[in-house]
């Protein structure tokens, strides 16, 4: 009788380490665990850290100029120039047909908004800018919210603030040898306390050696579910929080098939960090 195929394997010829024993304990309990190659080497961590640093700096460059931007194409131009000046690549450009270097999502656009000259930025708009950078085969991924003109409605301001708090609460819930579901449970509980919808159709993800890797990091769920979190894993937390329903739809008017809209067309917000799991909790690599 064949048992379930094991995901975790000890290194050949070596006695199991304490890490091995902890991971195998949970795998033997029937929990989903990472594969060994999801645990980054010291060299890989340094490469991902550099890509994350560039991602953060690129968002800083957007933050310094966004008040002067007339449209979302201007934001794309900033990202393209930054990457050219810093010898790195904007990963979104041409990724599965995505035509631009960055995602710019305004108001009711949940994510994957495509920069264009006709998307004029108006005072009071809330805009998510989502950037992934590839440096020498390592990846950083982060997004921030911006309020155009520095002021918007109290309702939008609260949405932006609570969404950032959801990210912070999710990071606090991410513990070594805890589970991805712990993150989603904490975020969902906090968001729904404020009567917001947590998007279920999109999630955070592993990142570092590619833009999208295991595990999926859902922003809703139950404690103890999902993949075991092990020191050395790198992943994003990126809650997408809607002012109304959690449901979303694909914009039929987008010829590229990317832009996601809230189901009731009320505003949405998102914040994202790339994180490294350590023995003491998460370290921010890109923000």
TrEMBL record:
Q: Which UniProt keywords apply?
A: Aminopeptidase, Hydrolase, Metal-binding, Protease
Q: Which cofactor does it need?
A: Co(2+); Zn(2+); Mn(2+); Fe(2+)
Give the binding site residues for a divalent metal cation 1: 130, 141, 272
Give binding positions for substrate. 112, 212
| Domain Peptidase M24 stretches | 46-279
MF annotations from Gene Ontology: initiator methionyl aminopeptidase activity; metal ion binding; metalloaminopeptidase activity
> Looking at the Swiss-Prot or TrEMBL record, what is one Pfam family this protein matches?
Peptidase_M24
In the record, biological process GO terms are: proteolysis
The record describes how the cofactor is bound as: Binds 2 divalent metal cations per subunit. Has a high-affinity and a low affinity metal-binding site. The true nature of the physiological cofactor is under debate. The enzyme is active with cobalt, zinc, manganese or divalent iron ions. Most likely, methionine aminopeptidases function as mononuclear Fe(2+)-metalloproteases under physiological conditions, and the catalytically relevant metal-binding site has been assigned to the histidine-containing high-affinity site.
Reaction equation(s) it catalyzes: Release of N-terminal amino acids, preferentially methionine, from peptides and arylamides
Instruction: Supply the EC number(s).
Output: 3.4.11.18
Domain of life, source organism: Bacteria
InterPro entries cross-referenced by the UniProt entry? Creatinase/aminopeptidase-like (IPR036005), Pept_M24 (IPR000994), Pept_M24_MAP (IPR001714), Pept_M24A_MAP1 (IPR002467)
Provide the binding site for a divalent metal cation 2.
141, 205, 238, 272
**Its biological purpose:** Removes the N-terminal methionine from nascent proteins. The N-terminal methionine is often cleaved when the second residue in the primary sequence is small and uncharged (Met-Ala-, Cys, Gly, Pro, Ser, Thr, or Val). Requires deformylation of the N(alpha)-formylated initiator methionine before it can be hydrolyzed.
Assembly, per entry: Monomer.
Tell me which family the UniProt entry assigns to this protein: Belongs to the peptidase M24A family. Methionine aminopeptidase type 1 subfamily.
Q: What is this protein called?
A: Methionine aminopeptidase
- Record organism: Segatella baroniae B14
Q: Lineage, please?
A: Bacteria, Pseudomonadati, Bacteroidota, Bacteroidia, Bacteroidales
């Amino acid at each position: 009788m064949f048992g379930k195929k094991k995901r975790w394997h000890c290194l050949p010829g070596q006695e199991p380490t304490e890490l091995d024993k902890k991971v195998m304990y949970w795998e033997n309990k029937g929990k989903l665990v990472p594969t060994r190659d999801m645990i980054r080497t010291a060299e890989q961590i340094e490469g991902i850290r550099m890509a994350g640093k560039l991602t953060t700096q690129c968002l800083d460059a957007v933050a310094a100029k966004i008040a002067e931007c007339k449209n979302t194409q201007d934001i794309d131009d900033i990202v393209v120039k930054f990457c050219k000046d810093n010898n790195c690549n904007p990963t979104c450009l041409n990724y599965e047909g995505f035509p631009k270097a960055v995602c710019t999502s305004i108001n009711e656009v949940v994510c994957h908004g495509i920069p264009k000259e006709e998307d004029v930025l108006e005072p009071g708009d809330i805009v998510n800018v989502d950037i992934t950078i590839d440096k020498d085969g390592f990846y950083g991924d982060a997004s921030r919210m911006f309020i155009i003109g520095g002021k918007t409605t109290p309702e939008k301001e609260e949405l932006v603030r609570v969404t950032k708090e959801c990210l912070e609460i999710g990071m606090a819930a991410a513990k070594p040898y805890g589970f991805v579901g712990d993150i989603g449970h904490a975020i969902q509980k906090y968001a729904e306390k404020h009567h917001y919808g947590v998007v279920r159709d999109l999630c955070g993800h592993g990142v570092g050696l590619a833009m999208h890797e295991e595990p999926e990091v859902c922003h809703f769920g139950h404690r103890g579910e999902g993949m075991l979190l092990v020191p050395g894993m790198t992943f994003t937390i990126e809650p997408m929080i809607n002012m109304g329903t959690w449901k979303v739809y694909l914009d039929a008017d987008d010829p590229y098939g990317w832009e996601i809209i809230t189901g009731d067309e009320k505003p949405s917000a998102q914040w994202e960090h790339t994180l490294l799991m350590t023995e003491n909790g998460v370290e921010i690599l890109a923000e």
